[in-house]
Amino acid sequence: MYTLVCPASPRLRLLAITLLVLATASACDRPPTGSTTQPAARTLVVGTEPTFPPFEARGEKGDFVGFDIDLVRAIGAKAGFNVQFKDLGFDALIPALNAGQIDVIASAMSITDERKNAVDFSDPYVEAGLVIAVRQNEQGVRNAETLVGKTLAVQQGSTGAEAADKLKAAGKVKEIKYFQTVPLAMMELTKGGADAVINDRPTAENYVASNPNQVRVLPEPVQSDSYGLAIKKGNADLLAKINTALKELKAEGFLKQLEDKHFAGKTVAGTSAEAPKGFSGHMVAVLPDLVKGAGIAVLVVLIAEVMGTVLGLGLALMRLSGSGVLSVVAAVYVDLIRGTPMLVQILFVYFGVPSLISSLTGSPFNPDPIIAGTLALGFNSAAYVSEIYRATLGSIDRGQNEAACALGLSPVQRFRYVIFPQAFRIAIPPLGNEFVTLLKDTSLLSVIAVMEIVKAGQLYMSRTYAVFPTYLAIALVYVILTLAITNILRVVERRMKLPT
């Protein structure tokens, strides 16, 4: 392979470095919301996973609703705090709390000795207890002792999962299947992939109320369980204020009012009292949420693709510059990105980097999930785009570069007017494939609560438990988007063909 520069010409190396700087600067010109503007002194950022009715869910308007939501708002009013909710996956809540991204966890979190090692808990506000849910026609499972040889489905990171782990260690269950949300675990139960689900009683009863002909809850509990609000260790002042407000609310009978409002199989306030009937009804009802999610996904991909294209071109030029140092740096970057899963990169950018910055500076660093997700996708795309450009630039006949050099064109002029236009035409099809791949990869951003297509569908499922029609609708939205992008790229290819 040859380089794109004539002897003793360092300008293209400078161009490569400039492109890298511009790509990084353009991606970072809008600072994360938490990096420059911290929440007001009397504002609590509360982390919650809104897929756990009746405690937390998203209402029809996308607002946070449920027992925990009402409780935290009342505590905020008592203690003199404003409250701001942040949507996070359940297993990401404690890392976010310890990284300073949130101040409080309000997500039906059970108080356990293991969790006490990581966070401080408020006084208990609900006595929940773990129960076993089985299919309506299941006769072989009557209590925890009759789970021998059975398969359990649980929500990962929950106390139900901990109880299931103990049962398996004792040889009482055959297999445990871990799911991100309770609706998915329940779906595994109803379709026959699991024999039972272990979960908190209020949530299990809420599911039974929506699906009375499919699932029932066994009367004998697995273990007692209490919920508390989680606060970062060492924040004694905040913990005291929350406990004081909680005691006052209990004395006033407010918690009893919340139980009457949200428990006993009632629909979470703010969601539909009656879910759409039938398969097609769910398909239609979820579409508005999916369309909004598609808009966010497309916006993220467009920005990430621009960033990836500029940064990727810079990396490709570094590989072809003739500089051993630049080539090695670019090669290491590409190998690191291609050697790690996209999900790990997203979590690293959103949780790992802020945690490191917080530990170094002593101040919370709270990036916006959309910005963090866009950066992660952009950095990932750059590695693959750089290889596309490296291959296409290297495919241009060497004589073209030599002829341009003989005509007295500078390295930048040769690249701009001779080499790059031809390489770009060749690169359009693989760049289009990379764009489509990146669009589908936005589904991974649901783990950091970006309201893209999959996350929007998951929130709908948490309200209706309509798993199959929701996922089918999600798939159709992705198919429509990819077909539209593919057709647009075909038009671009036809218009940019070299004249014959």
Automatic annotation (TrEMBL):
SUPFAM superfamilies: MetI-like (SSF161098), Periplasmic binding protein-like II (SSF53850). Residues 294-489 form the ABC transmembrane type-1 domain. GO terms for molecular function: ligand-gated monoatomic ion channel activity. One of its GO terms (cellular component) is ATP-binding cassette (ABC) transporter complex. SMART domains: PBPb (SM00062), PBPe (SM00079). The chain crosses the membrane at residues 296-318, 325-351, 468-489. It comes from the Bacteria. It is found in: Cell inner membrane; Cell membrane. It is a multi-pass membrane protein. Residues 1-27 form the signal peptide. InterPro entries: AA_ABC_transptr_permease_3TM, ArtM/GltK/GlnP/TcyL/YhdX-like, Iontro_rcpt_C, MetI-like, MetI-like_sf, SBP_3_CS, Solute-binding_3/MltF_N. One of its GO terms (biological process) is amino acid transport. The keyword Zinc does not apply. Keywords: Amino-acid transport, Cell membrane, Membrane, Signal, Transmembrane, Transmembrane helix, Transport. Belongs to the bacterial solute-binding protein 3 family. Part of the binding-protein-dependent transport system for glutamine; probably responsible for the translocation of the substrate across the membrane. This is Putative glutamine transport system permease protein GlnP. It comes from Humisphaera borealis. The lineage of its organism: Bacteria, Pseudomonadati, Planctomycetota, Phycisphaerae, Tepidisphaerales.
